[in-house]
């Protein structure tokens, strides 16, 4: 089938890259050892801090999110160290594998892939660790495979109440610059992020925001590290340089994306994602389909995972939608393969893009013969309209 117009990329990352960012990257490559580059690098390294809501350093690597997972571990831990990691879904499973390959002992807290990390379970585990043998608590903030967001501030509170010295390592790959996240205030020690989701860039860059406590742990950490070594990075970063070739053109894109996020204002960015999350959930409920996330206070605002009715395959539905409407939706991952589809509503996105996305899904449900009720689109539009009125009523001068 010949498709016209724009492809709809509604997977939960990589996300649509806005025209302004594409234009910013479409420049000649510059000398990464020259003064112009140093100025660019210093600007983005500084500009990233408010996005993570930290005053500390953000280390930036050419590489995907998996590299930043590895960096968080090898910079803070030693062989044989014990960590607690919550099973939230596919991505917690992958992070566990990275840790285990480095000889880290992972206490993997079982989960049903429908809820976030449990503060009560963390409390029980830390209480039982009077000797403080647990070196780190690891959590995927927004589990991209399930659309469930863990409550990081509550987990930190438990650690503080018990005066447990473990580090807190958090993956925000699909929540950064989309949902509220406060590295400093929530006492996170290492935040792991990537370029390809809320930051509206292509894949290829990843980040660690690092607390003072994590820097102190780094000095004693004995896992082998070379490419991902923070110290190798932090020293040259001070003057705007890198120990190896940085992703120069992505940095042009990052500078533009940071400008866009600041122009909109982070609270507005979060509010926009919240409105889109709510409208999507309203559509799913009206269709009579089931949200995978079982805990309303843990709904993700950057993506929604929808469970398929028994006997219907999510990949078939996604193919029907791709072929007929040129829209890509996220697949169910590992044990959820074929059982769920995921709608990405993060990054460079607006009300009408969401309306188009949901319309494509509703038409696809019909074409694929998936049992559902009519009315999902009206429910979503109603949700968007009521929150637009709420915005208009509170904006100045009206
Ligand atoms: C929450 C989360 N963590 C980690 C990763 C792995 O990142 P990457 O595929 O960039 O290596 C992803 C990728 O989608 C993710 O969503």
Overview of this structure, please?
The protein has 13 helices and 14 strands. By secondary structure, the chain is α/β, with parallel strands linked by helices. Helix 1 packs antiparallel against helix 9 (248-264), helix 2 packs across helix 9 and helix 10 runs antiparallel to helix 13 (376-394). The relative contact order is 0.17. The model has no long low-confidence stretch (mean pLDDT 97). The strands form 3 sheets. It has a 7-stranded mixed beta sheet with strand order 2-10-9-8-5-3-4, sandwiched between helices. The protein binds pyridoxal-5'-phosphate. Residues 13, 64-66, 91, 140, 144, 171, 173-174, 194, 203 line the site of pyridoxal-5'-phosphate.
Summarize the structure.
This protein has about 400 residues and is an alpha/beta fold. Helices cover about 45% and strands about 15% of the residues. Strands 2-10-9-8-5-3-4 form a 7-stranded mixed β-sheet, sandwiched between helices.
Query: In DSSP terms, counting alpha (H) and pi (I) runs of 4 or more, how many helices?
Result: 13
Order of helices and strands: EHHEHEHEHEEEHEEEHHHHEEHEEHH
pLDDT < 50 stretches: none
Instruction: Give the tally of β-strands.
Output: 14
Q: Sketch the major β-sheet.
A: 7 strands, mixed
Overall SS class: alpha/beta
Overall average residue pLDDT:
97
Strand order of the largest sheet: 2-10-9-8-5-3-4
Helix content: 40-55%
Strand content: 15-25%
Q: Between the first and last Cα atoms, what is the distance in angstroms?
A: 48 Å
Bound molecules: pyridoxal-5'-phosphate
Overall geometry comes to: globular
Question: How large, in whole angstroms, is the Cα Rg?
Answer: 21 Å
